[in-house]
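Researcher: Go.
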Amino acid sequence: MSKTPSERIKLIQDISDKLSYEDWPIIDLTLRQFGLQTTDQWSGSDKKGYVISMIDKSDDESLAQIGRA
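Model: Structure:
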C-alpha cells in the first residue's frame, strides 16, 4: 500500500535522525544494503541532509525496510 506524503516525510525524518549519529562509512553501508543511493560527491558536512537527499526519491518499500532496521 502506498504511503501518503505525510507518512513518507515522517519516515524519512526518522531514518535521517537515526543514521545521522553514525559515521559516514556506516551511513553509506546501510543505504547500500537496502539498495538505496549513495554518492562520493557530497560537499556538505551535514549527515542528516545527506541521508534525506539520498532517500527522498526511494520507493515506499525501500523506505519501510530501512525504517524497520
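Model: The CA atoms of residues 18 and 30 lie 11 Å apart.
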